């Protein structure tokens, strides 16, 4: 079997919408779908469920730009059901209930026919229910916007074929119809779509989530507070066939918090090396560039400050910014305040922006956080080195400081300005970093990317038969005690109740984890080698001198973590402090532990 071979089946990416003015996440999912099709020969589908009626236009635009190469199909739930003939919809028995007492507003399809009827309370502009129409005027779908109504699939005679209480039921039904036979590997790049997939009971379906951003809030440690929307998803990792992270660092952070289960994977974004002109055009000395959404996350104001500072030493420095967003008025005002109107140019959204990078001295990355940014890889693929803040996650994995770009401390505007000036004054350094950037991008080649995804899909398929469902875990006869000044011991019995193969050393473990509150460092001590029994005898020792050598002196929390293939269980058993005099522990959770301590021990 070739390392590029995929398991037989259909490969679906589920997204709410795909738009022409795509962002990084949309670009990444389209690229993955395209590469699976063109390199591995996969049957690849991008499935969306927004009600936009202009999918023929979007499809044509994306095809023209090369985003749907290789036979990738872009299908939309509304477009699909609107265009089905009678036999493909089925027949209903009961009439679609008529709605009364509402004001109605209609919208037309681009083809001129009626597309939607919006039902609203008198005097309100908020939809209660929306009926969507076929070209002949009949309703094909009823979509409630509030509680109390059902989602209804409707036949050509306006009889209800099927009803659902929740949108997720409709989406699951559609996906099953979309791929009626064979294995289906579904990847969603949005945490808001995953709950829909987790409800699929058809064993043909293998569901995976891909995170494009950090899952924690600042300071983005593994034990920091979770960002909105991530807690519900991460609490259900056991139900997924796979959770894919863009960096090994983020995978490790998830594993530290929720257990190192076997359904956690790491695949970085790739980049397609462009065909560069021969000879290469001269780089414009002192021209820097950004290709980014003008949103709060991107912190473009830091780049403006760096440019203003760098111009004190090199007045010829200028900055081109490609992209648009809600922060543009604020940033334009900031440009005026910093007297940079002749220095900084906002070009807006430009499909060819990547090519504008080719002649720049360097690319500036000032984001608050990222996952594994494509924009920087695309810049490096054109020989443009990147000057970036060292943020979570991505830049540290992409940039080797002084070899293919510069990595500086987060928010260190002075350091960014100094690196800019250095590149302007030292053309040989700029040329060296340019060569390094191109070589780094070349290491992110599409074939390696597909090879890694193929391994993920093969692993997911192979692990299906040994997936577990942990019903409960029970600690009994637990005893944590001080043996002497330098040693603490722990003994307990842990019973894992649920379905799946008995825990063995292949895929299962139980550890005693000690983590520091100040720096987040973790020391793990194995408690048992699972041998097939559901009740495990746990035994372990904490050597104070070894802990102190790794953690120093700081408050600590002690936790038991059990991993059972795709399932995990965690329980905080003690807290205390490492001091020069030794280790002091008190049983139970810390009353005022670090942010996220309660979640860690849940």
Automatic annotation (TrEMBL):
GO molecular function term, any single one: glycosyltransferase activity
UniProt cross-references to Pfam families, sorted A to Z: Glycos_transf_1
Keyword check for Transferase: yes
Signal sequence segment: none
Keyword annotations of the record: Transferase
Limits of the Glycosyl transferase family domain: 284-439
Protein's name according to its UniProt entry: Poly(Glycerol-phosphate) alpha-glucosyltransferase
């Amino acid at each position: 079997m070739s390392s590029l071979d995929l398991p037989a089946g259909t490969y679906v990416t589920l997204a709410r919408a795909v738009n022409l003015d795509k962002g990084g996440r949309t670009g990444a999912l389209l690229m993955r779908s395209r590469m699976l099709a063109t390199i591995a020969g996969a049957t690849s589908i991008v499935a969306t469920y927004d009600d936009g009626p202009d999918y023929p236009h979007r499809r044509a635009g994306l095809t023209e730009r090369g985003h749907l190469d290789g036979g990738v199909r872009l299908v939309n739930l509304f477009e699909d059901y609107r265009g089905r003939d009678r036999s493909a919809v089925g027949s209903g028995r009961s009439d679609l209930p008529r709605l009364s007492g509402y004001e109605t507003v209609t919208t037309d399809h681009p083809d001129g026919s009626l597309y939607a009827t919006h039902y609203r309370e008198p005097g309100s502009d908020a939809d209660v229910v929306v009926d969507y129409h076929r070209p002949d005027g009949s309703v094909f779908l009823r979509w409630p916007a509030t509680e109390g109504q059902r989602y209804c699939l409707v036949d050509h005679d306006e009889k209800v074929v099927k009803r659902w209480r929740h949108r997720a039921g409709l989406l699951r039904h559609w996906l099953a119809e979309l791929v009626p036979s064979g294995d289906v590997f579904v990847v969603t790049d949005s945490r808001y779509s995953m709950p829909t997939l987790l409800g699929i009971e058809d064993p043909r379906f293998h569901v995976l989530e891909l995170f494009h951003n950090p899952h924690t809030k600042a300071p983005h440690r593994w034990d920091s507070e979770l960002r909105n929307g991530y807690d519900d998803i991460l609490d259900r990792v056991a139900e997924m066939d796979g959770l894919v992270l863009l960096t090994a660092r983020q995978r490790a952070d998830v594993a530290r918090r929720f257990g190192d289960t076997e359904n956690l994977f790491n695949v970085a974004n790739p980049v397609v090396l462009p065909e560069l002109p021969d000879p290469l055009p001269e780089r414009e000395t002192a021209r820097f560039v950004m290709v980014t959404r003008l949103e709060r996350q991107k912190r473009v104001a830091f780049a403006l400050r760096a440019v203003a500072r760098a111009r004190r030493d090199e007045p010829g420095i200028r900055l081109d910014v490609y992209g648009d967003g809600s922060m543009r008025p604020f940033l334009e005002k900031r440009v005026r305040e910093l007297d940079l109107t002749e220095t900084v140019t906002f070009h807006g959204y430009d499909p060819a922006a990547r090519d504008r990078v080719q002649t720049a001295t360097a690319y500036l990355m000032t984001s608050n956080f990222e996952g594994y940014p494509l924009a920087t890889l695309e810049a490096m693929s054109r020989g443009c080195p990147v000057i970036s803040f060292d943020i979570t996650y991505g830049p540290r994995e992409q940039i080797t400081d002084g070899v293919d770009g510069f990595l500086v401390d987060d928010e260190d505007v002075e350091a960014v300005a100094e690196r800019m000036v250095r590149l302007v004054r030292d053309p040989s350094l700029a040329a060296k970093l340019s060569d390094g950037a191109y070589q780094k991008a070349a290491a992110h080649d599409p074939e390696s990317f597909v090879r890694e995804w193929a391994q993920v899909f093969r692993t997911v398929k192979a692990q299906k038969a040994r997936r577990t469902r942990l019903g409960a875990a029970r600690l009994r006869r637990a005893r944590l005690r001080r043996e002497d000044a330098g040693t603490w011991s722990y003994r307990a019995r842990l019973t894992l109740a649920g379905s799946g193969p008995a825990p063995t050393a292949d895929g299962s473990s139980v550890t005693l984890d000690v983590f520091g509150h100040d720096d987040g460092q973790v020391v793990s001590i194995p408690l048992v080698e699972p041998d097939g029994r559901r009740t495990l005898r746990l035994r372990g020792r904490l050597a104070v001198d070894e802990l102190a050598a790794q953690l120093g002196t700081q408050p600590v929390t002690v936790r038991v973590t059990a991993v059972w293939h795709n399932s995990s269980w965690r329980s905080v058993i003690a807290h205390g402090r490492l001091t020069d005099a030794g280790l002091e522990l008190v049983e139970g959770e810390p009353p005022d532990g670090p942010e996220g301590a309660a979640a860690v021990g849940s």
